Amino acid sequence: MQFLLFLFFVTTQSFVFRSIKPKSVIENLRANDKYSYKDKLPYFGKNSRIGSWKEEGRPGFGKNSRISSWNGSWKEEGRPGFGKNSRIGSRKGSWNGFLALIRAQNILPTFFLSFTGAVIQKNLWSAHFVTSSLATLGILSSSMVFNDLFDMPIDKINHPNRPLINGDVSVKEALYYAASFVAITEYITHFMTPRMRSYVRFSLMGVILYTPVLKRIPLVKNIFCASLVSAALGFSGNTESFSPLLACAIQHIFAGSLHNELLLDIRDRQGDAQHGIATIPVLFGNKTALLLATHVLIINLLRLAYMLAWQKTLPLLLICLPMFRNIRTISLREYNRDVVVKASKDTSTPLFLSLLYFIILAHK
Known about the structure:
Order of helices and strands: HHHHHHHHHHHHHHHHHHH
CATH class of the domain at 243-364: Mainly Alpha
Helix content: 55-70%
Strand content: under 5%
Structural class: mainly alpha
Shape: globular
């Protein structure tokens, strides 16, 4: 626990100190200071600021003043007020920013991974399933926050609509969310066995070190992400040993996730190249990355045919056909970014259907 807290502190502090530039901040504030005192106006009287701020659109007590009507004038500049679109009156924007920060759309798929692992191992109605599922969601959420914090310069190019870039979430808020997820996940480990506790802590350390360290190593970052996703299956279904069917499911989800990670690298090639991140597309080109993603799927299916018998693997091949079709489309459209984005999103459906198929096999 102490080591995790120390690691989190060092990582976050290094991020903060690298991102703060006091001189530039002060210069920007001075340049944008709308309410400077260079006019040397008196504070009382006909032409004073208090008496006639409303003429300059400044706070006052008149009909058009900010103090008397925050909803009418502050709203126009996006400042706090009590109107429909104000921040004080409605925290909807902040809540949406939080959901976007942790990528809330991934919560249900992640839970379904945990559910599938527990069903295959017949470990569903147990305290371990509950704690492991909650810990998995905590690791997932913290990883998304840490990734966005460290990737802010890159996201300005690759993902300008991310909440830390468009201002929906501040850096201070993101650090608070990350610390909360780490602390909650660490607390959950107290209800686990020592071996499971070590797995969770190892995952948290990997998540914290992912962007500043692992992401800089070609292919290692792809393997780490795919391992983290597929580990949710084994983590929730873990007993003393994995069943052969659970091992096959973990391998299949690992291959599908690795395939998707390579597609994401193709999508982000421009921003990664500008910031010196050595991914497979940056080093060897999009064609090599797509070829590698294709072989990951083929090797996975061949291994499953050996482990499960080809009769049981044939449905998985049919389920994965859309992924192969998308690979061909990407190649024909010359790696168009929109096509790659669509192909990446379309991997979710085959993987979901594959999990359902493994659940059916577990009950035969």
